[in-house]
Amino acid sequence: MRIVVKVGTSTLAHPTGHLNIRHMESLCKVLADIKNAGHAVILVSSGAIGMGMGKLSLRERPKTLVGKQAAAAVGQCELMYTYDKLFSEYNHVIAQILLTGADVRDPERRENFTGTMEHLLEMGVLPVINENDTVSTEELGIGDNDTLGAIVATSIHADLLVLLSDIDGLFTDDPRVVPDAKLMPEVHEITEEIMAHAGGKGSAIGTGGMATKLTAAKMVMEAGGDMIIANGRDPAILYDLLDGKAIGTRFIGKK
Q1: H-only helix segments in the chain
Q2: How many whole angstroms separate alpha carbon 240 and alpha carbon 129?
Q3: What pLDDT, on the 0 to 100 scale, is given for residue 205?
Q4: Hey, how many other C-beta atoms are within 10 angstroms of the C-beta on 120?
Q5: Angle at CA of residue 224, ends 113 and 156, nearest 5°
């Protein structure tokens, strides 16, 4: 299988913005093991701005564009250094790919990206992809890594996109507000009613929310792939997902 795993900032960092070492070590170990089993793994990783916040001892996410870009420039270094160190322990080579909206909207540039991805996968490399927050602006940006994960998954015809976040899946209501909200185990179509279940923004140090995840699901489903939203507090959940266990919310693609 070709599996794209997207991890949000809330999975990689503490609320302070500093690296959650235990989560990152566990994530890399599980992904390395899945790759050892013969699957092609692509990691879409948030966290550059959050890491930069911790590195720069910032108490809150920068509000200005240049502030976000500066934090991303600092944080991306630490993020990739950590990934390279951890994956190297399991003898896996990683590659860094930073994208802007123009890279995926322009047909020729998107084709170049797809060609590079295919070649990296043929060589057994594990690509780590993030939006190029250091140069992206509102006009150039993709906006969030849920959408980026969907773009990557559809570009390389992945079998499955997994969004690991701080939520268990899609609920009938916001479980943070409505305690008896019910988890929706499967979704076969993104309807207006489904979109109405999308709550507000995600964590204080992230950019996503349920609305961006549903937009990503629609993209993947229309391309014929499946997508799963699951809680990333324990990356070992990926083993259960690949074994076909009902965890989180699975969006079933049009076959």
Answers
A1: 9-12, 21-36, 48-55, 65-88, 101-105, 107-122, 145-155, 192-196, 210-222, 237-242
A2: 24
A3: 37
A4: 19
A5: 15
